[in-house]
What we know:
Distance between the termini of chain A: 37 Å
Largest sheet of chain B: 6 strands, mixed
Oligomer: heterodimer
Radius of gyration of chain B: 14 Å
Number of strands of chain A: 11
Structural class of chain B: mainly beta
Radius of gyration of chain A: 13 Å
Shape of chain B: globular
Number of helices of chain B: 0
Strand content of chain A: over 45%
Distance between the termini of chain B: 41 Å
Structural class of chain A: mainly beta
Amino acid sequence: GAGVSQSPRYKVAKRGQDVALRCDPISGHVSLFWYQQALGQGPEFLTYFQNEAQLDKSGLPSDRFFAERPEGSVSTLKIQRTQQEDSAVYLCASSPASVTDTQYFGPGTRLTVL
Amino acid sequence: AQKITQTQPGMFVQEKEAVTLDCTYDTSDQSYGLFWYKQPSSGEMIFLIYQGSYDEQNATEGRYSLNFQKARKSANLVISASQLGDSAMYFCAMSDNSGGYNKLIFGAGTRLAVHP
Protein backbone atom coordinates (compact mmCIF):
# COMPACT_ATOMS: atom_id res chain seq x y z
CA GLY A 1 0.00 0.00 0.00
CA ALA A 2 0.94 3.65 -0.21
CA GLY A 3 3.33 4.95 2.39
CA VAL A 4 3.56 8.35 4.01
CA SER A 5 4.01 11.12 1.49
CA GLN A 6 5.22 14.67 2.02
CA SER A 7 5.25 17.73 -0.18
CA PRO A 8 7.10 19.64 -1.28
CA ARG A 9 10.29 17.56 -1.08
CA TYR A 10 12.41 20.71 -1.20
CA LYS A 11 11.54 24.25 -0.25
CA VAL A 12 13.69 27.35 -0.43
CA ALA A 13 12.36 30.40 1.40
CA LYS A 14 13.67 33.86 1.96
CA ARG A 15 13.96 34.89 5.57
CA GLY A 16 10.66 36.26 6.76
CA GLN A 17 8.48 34.26 4.37
CA ASP A 18 5.77 31.89 5.54
CA VAL A 19 5.91 28.23 4.47
CA ALA A 20 3.48 25.31 4.61
CA LEU A 21 4.60 21.69 4.59
CA ARG A 22 2.12 18.91 3.87
CA CYS A 23 1.97 15.34 5.14
CA ASP A 24 -0.30 12.56 3.85
CA PRO A 25 -0.18 9.69 6.35
CA ILE A 26 -0.91 6.07 5.65
CA SER A 27 -4.67 5.66 5.26
CA GLY A 28 -6.36 4.79 8.52
CA HIS A 29 -3.43 5.69 10.75
CA VAL A 30 -4.66 7.43 13.87
CA SER A 31 -1.37 8.83 15.11
CA LEU A 32 0.67 11.45 13.27
CA PHE A 33 4.00 12.93 14.36
CA TRP A 34 6.19 15.75 13.07
CA TYR A 35 9.93 15.74 13.66
CA GLN A 36 12.67 18.24 12.80
CA GLN A 37 16.08 16.97 11.71
CA ALA A 38 18.92 19.48 11.64
CA LEU A 39 21.94 18.70 9.48
CA GLY A 40 24.05 15.91 10.94
CA GLN A 41 21.67 15.22 13.84
CA GLY A 42 18.92 12.81 14.71
CA PRO A 43 15.27 13.82 14.36
CA GLU A 44 13.67 15.74 17.22
CA PHE A 45 10.02 15.58 18.13
CA LEU A 46 7.86 18.60 17.30
CA THR A 47 4.21 17.67 17.72
CA TYR A 48 1.71 14.79 17.89
CA PHE A 49 -1.86 14.31 16.64
CA GLN A 50 -4.34 11.63 17.54
CA ASN A 51 -6.88 11.90 14.75
CA GLU A 52 -7.64 15.63 14.54
CA ALA A 53 -6.63 16.41 18.13
CA GLN A 54 -3.20 17.89 18.72
CA LEU A 55 -2.27 16.24 22.01
CA ASP A 56 1.33 17.35 22.31
CA LYS A 57 3.03 20.40 20.86
CA SER A 58 5.81 20.58 23.40
CA GLY A 59 8.55 20.28 20.77
CA LEU A 60 7.53 23.24 18.63
CA PRO A 61 10.49 25.65 18.87
CA SER A 62 8.48 28.88 18.91
CA ASP A 63 5.05 30.34 18.34
CA ARG A 64 6.00 30.78 14.69
CA PHE A 65 5.41 27.06 14.26
CA PHE A 66 1.85 25.84 13.88
CA ALA A 67 0.46 22.44 12.90
CA GLU A 68 -3.01 21.21 12.09
CA ARG A 69 -4.84 18.07 11.04
CA PRO A 70 -8.42 19.27 10.67
CA GLU A 71 -10.03 16.08 9.34
CA GLY A 72 -7.80 13.57 11.03
CA SER A 73 -5.87 12.64 7.90
CA VAL A 74 -3.68 15.17 6.05
CA SER A 75 -1.57 17.41 8.25
CA THR A 76 0.10 20.74 7.55
CA LEU A 77 3.06 22.22 9.41
CA LYS A 78 3.22 25.97 8.96
CA ILE A 79 6.18 28.15 9.81
CA GLN A 80 5.63 31.88 9.89
CA ARG A 81 8.33 34.49 9.34
CA THR A 82 10.99 31.87 8.66
CA GLN A 83 14.46 32.30 10.13
CA GLN A 84 17.76 30.74 9.05
CA GLU A 85 17.73 28.46 12.08
CA ASP A 86 14.53 26.88 10.74
CA SER A 87 16.58 25.28 7.94
CA ALA A 88 16.22 21.53 8.45
CA VAL A 89 14.48 18.43 7.16
CA TYR A 90 10.94 18.12 8.45
CA LEU A 91 9.80 14.53 8.79
CA CYS A 92 6.27 13.29 9.20
CA ALA A 93 5.45 9.85 10.60
CA SER A 94 2.23 7.94 11.17
CA SER A 95 1.28 4.85 13.13
CA PRO A 96 -1.92 2.82 13.45
CA ALA A 97 -2.82 3.57 17.02
CA SER A 98 -1.31 1.97 20.08
CA VAL A 99 1.77 2.96 22.02
CA THR A 100 3.73 0.01 20.75
CA ASP A 101 3.05 0.64 17.09
CA THR A 102 5.94 1.33 14.80
CA GLN A 103 6.05 4.76 13.20
CA TYR A 104 6.38 4.91 9.43
CA PHE A 105 8.13 7.95 8.06
CA GLY A 106 7.71 9.98 4.93
CA PRO A 107 10.64 11.17 2.78
CA GLY A 108 10.77 14.54 4.50
CA THR A 109 10.76 18.13 3.31
CA ARG A 110 14.13 19.84 3.18
CA LEU A 111 13.63 23.50 4.06
CA THR A 112 16.38 25.99 3.31
CA VAL A 113 15.95 29.54 4.55
CA LEU A 114 18.20 32.09 2.87
CA ALA B 1 14.87 12.49 30.98
CA GLN B 2 15.27 9.82 28.38
CA LYS B 3 18.40 9.81 26.26
CA ILE B 4 19.91 7.75 23.45
CA THR B 5 23.66 7.67 22.90
CA GLN B 6 25.34 6.45 19.74
CA THR B 7 29.09 6.78 20.22
CA GLN B 8 30.20 5.81 16.72
CA PRO B 9 29.88 8.73 14.28
CA GLY B 10 31.10 6.50 11.46
CA MET B 11 31.77 2.85 10.81
CA PHE B 12 32.95 0.93 7.82
CA VAL B 13 32.70 -2.75 7.01
CA GLN B 14 33.75 -5.03 4.21
CA GLU B 15 30.97 -6.41 2.05
CA LYS B 16 29.61 -9.76 3.31
CA GLU B 17 30.99 -9.23 6.82
CA ALA B 18 28.96 -8.54 9.96
CA VAL B 19 28.95 -5.19 11.75
CA THR B 20 27.66 -4.02 15.12
CA LEU B 21 26.33 -0.51 15.66
CA ASP B 22 26.29 0.58 19.29
CA CYS B 23 23.40 2.16 21.15
CA THR B 24 22.96 2.86 24.84
CA TYR B 25 19.93 4.43 26.43
CA ASP B 26 18.90 6.05 29.67
CA THR B 27 15.41 5.91 31.10
CA SER B 28 13.67 5.47 34.43
CA ASP B 29 10.61 3.90 32.79
CA GLN B 30 9.94 0.19 33.16
CA SER B 31 8.07 -0.09 29.87
CA TYR B 32 9.66 1.25 26.73
CA GLY B 33 10.46 0.32 23.17
CA LEU B 34 13.70 0.46 21.24
CA PHE B 35 13.87 0.98 17.50
CA TRP B 36 16.45 1.11 14.76
CA TYR B 37 15.89 3.11 11.61
CA LYS B 38 17.98 3.37 8.44
CA GLN B 39 18.23 6.68 6.59
CA PRO B 40 19.76 6.46 3.11
CA SER B 41 20.86 9.56 1.26
CA SER B 42 17.32 9.94 -0.11
CA GLY B 43 16.29 11.01 3.40
CA GLU B 44 13.49 8.61 4.25
CA MET B 45 13.62 6.90 7.64
CA ILE B 46 13.18 3.17 7.09
CA PHE B 47 12.09 1.04 10.06
CA LEU B 48 14.39 -1.93 10.63
CA ILE B 49 13.68 -3.58 13.96
CA TYR B 50 11.87 -3.18 17.29
CA GLN B 51 12.54 -4.51 20.80
CA GLY B 52 10.14 -4.16 23.69
CA SER B 53 11.58 -3.76 27.16
CA TYR B 54 9.74 -6.87 28.38
CA ASP B 55 10.72 -9.03 25.42
CA GLU B 56 13.00 -11.77 26.64
CA GLN B 57 14.23 -12.80 23.22
CA ASN B 58 16.42 -10.56 21.11
CA ALA B 59 14.53 -9.27 18.08
CA THR B 60 15.55 -10.44 14.62
CA GLU B 61 14.41 -9.32 11.18
CA GLY B 62 16.21 -11.01 8.33
CA ARG B 63 19.84 -9.85 8.38
CA TYR B 64 19.16 -7.49 11.30
CA SER B 65 19.26 -8.49 14.93
CA LEU B 66 19.09 -6.42 18.06
CA ASN B 67 21.45 -7.36 20.89
CA PHE B 68 19.38 -6.23 23.87
CA GLN B 69 21.17 -6.11 27.23
CA LYS B 70 18.71 -4.59 29.65
CA ALA B 71 20.99 -4.41 32.66
CA ARG B 72 23.58 -2.52 30.62
CA LYS B 73 20.90 -0.43 28.92
CA SER B 74 22.25 -1.26 25.51
CA ALA B 75 20.48 -2.11 22.28
CA ASN B 76 23.11 -2.73 19.64
CA LEU B 77 22.17 -3.44 16.03
CA VAL B 78 23.93 -6.32 14.31
CA ILE B 79 23.86 -6.46 10.53
CA SER B 80 25.02 -9.78 9.13
CA ALA B 81 26.39 -10.32 5.62
CA SER B 82 26.66 -6.60 4.83
CA GLN B 83 25.64 -5.43 1.38
CA LEU B 84 26.63 -2.31 -0.53
CA GLY B 85 23.04 -1.10 -0.18
CA ASP B 86 23.43 -1.05 3.59
CA SER B 87 25.54 2.11 3.34
CA ALA B 88 23.44 4.75 5.11
CA MET B 89 22.89 6.56 8.41
CA TYR B 90 21.51 4.39 11.19
CA PHE B 91 19.52 5.81 14.08
CA CYS B 92 18.67 4.20 17.36
CA ALA B 93 15.51 5.48 19.05
CA MET B 94 13.43 4.80 22.11
CA SER B 95 9.81 5.50 22.78
CA ASP B 96 8.64 7.87 25.45
CA ASN B 97 5.21 6.48 26.34
CA SER B 98 4.54 8.80 29.26
CA GLY B 99 1.81 10.61 27.35
CA GLY B 100 0.04 7.46 26.21
CA TYR B 101 1.63 7.55 22.76
CA ASN B 102 5.11 6.62 21.58
CA LYS B 103 7.02 9.82 20.98
CA LEU B 104 10.46 8.80 19.71
CA ILE B 105 13.77 10.02 21.14
CA PHE B 106 16.60 9.57 18.62
CA GLY B 107 20.34 9.29 18.93
CA ALA B 108 22.76 11.26 16.77
CA GLY B 109 23.21 8.37 14.35
CA THR B 110 26.04 6.30 12.93
CA ARG B 111 27.09 6.53 9.30
CA LEU B 112 27.87 3.08 7.92
CA ALA B 113 29.96 2.63 4.80
CA VAL B 114 30.10 -0.81 3.19
CA HIS B 115 33.19 -1.37 1.05
CA PRO B 116 33.35 -3.90 -1.80
